[in-house]
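One thing: mind reviewing this one?
=====
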Amino acid sequence: MMHPYVFEKPLTEAILLKRNSQFTMDVLINGEVVRCHCPTTGRIGNIETKNIACLVSESSDPKRKLKYTVEAVSCDGLDCPDKNWIGINQILSNRLVEFFLQTRQLSDMVSDYEEIKREVNLGISKLDFLVGNTYMEVKTPLTTLDVIYDDSIKTKPVTPFSSTERFTKHIRELAGSLAEHERAILLTVHQYKRTQKRPHQKSTHYEEVSTAMRDAKEKGLEIWNVDMRFTPQGVTLLSCENTTDRQ
């Protein structure tokens, strides 16, 4: 039985009116327009982040400049009663992975461990986890959203992203660790249920990334994927699968 990660306080459903910058969004919360923190600096798919449903968390820290954070959006219509929420807080992914490791819900992927370490140094990189003797790096892609779009969702043309240096460096460090450690895993986290496969746009450094991935897999790097169900109350693990042979 799946054990959900529960938020300290249920999130509030609201309407995302517009994205002002990488860091802020204007949201209609209970009839009031509020400037909120945006936890991801990158783009969110190819959708226009205007007049779409969202979930916000409220901070009790009086020192925070912005009281609310947009934690999730939806590509369903505003009136849809059972929205497929897409978590956009990439920092939350590591807390979720740690929770599902602690509660032994990722045993298909890794089971032989007594200790979970966060933020571990490996070579010139700092990786997300060392689980027993398995190094693990977590990524939460948001540049493509593999979900069905409601007719009300508007899209926009996007340019290829080019920020791949950190990812490539971590891939090479993970593969290099296999000379001394038993396993290394690249874990892709979707804080939502994927309902429609969409074409993923290639980065401007596609060939370099592809070469690094191919070399890493030849050395034994495993690639896994988890899907989650995101709700105002918390997050439940939906699936965990090895996708190494599909990359």
